[in-house]
Amino acid sequence: QVQLVESGGGLVQAGGSLRLSCAASGSSFSSLSMGWFRQAPGKELEFVAAFTWNGDSTYYSDSVRGRFTISRDNAKNTVYLQMNNLKPEDTAVYSCAASIHRYYTTRRYANRENYNYWGQGTQVTVSS
User: Fold this and answer.
1) pLDDT tens digits, 15-40
2) For the chain, is the Cβ count within 10 Å smaller at the N or the C terminus?
3) Is the dihedral of CA 16, 94, 69, 60 positive or negative?
4) Are the C-beta atoms of residues 97 and 38 closer than 8 Å to each other?
């Protein structure tokens, strides 16, 4: 079992930055691929970014590429999402997820069904 706890959400003005953290416990973090998803009110869950288990590759949705950066610290069992140049359309509940599987494409990492564990989420609100 893996437990995931997100933190770092909040209210920020457009153009500002936030860094989300997701702390993992309960299993070998370094063997997990990690992803971030978000869900805005009335919208479907959307893939944001992912980091492979081996640290070799990152994947991003087109909507955040160039503004968001995913990283991981295996010594701290934590994955981060640095969000810069935030826009009102980035407002959502952000959740991290962990996968025991090993994939090699964005399509695989963007599929919520390919993740085994989920956190509760943290709210990010971007004001205009």
Assistant:
1) 999 999 999 997 688 899 999 999 99
2) N
3) negative
4) no
Q: Which of 46-50, 52-56, 57-61 is predicted least confidently?
A: 52-56
Torsion sign, CA atoms 76, 98, 60, 9: negative
| Beta-carbon count within 10 A of 116 CB | 15
Kind and range of the H or E run holding 107:
helix 106-109
Calculate Rg over the CA atoms of the chain: 13
Q: How far apart are CA 40 and CA 25, in angstroms?
A: 27
Q: To which H or E segment does residue 109 belong?
A: helix 106-109
The answer for residues whose C-beta is within 8 angstroms of residue 59's C-beta and 6 or more apart is 49, 50, 51, 106, 109, 110
**Measured distance CA(4)–CA(23) in Å, rounded:** 6
- The Cα-based distances of 70 to 27, 43, 57, 75, 128 in angstroms read 21, 23, 10, 16, 24
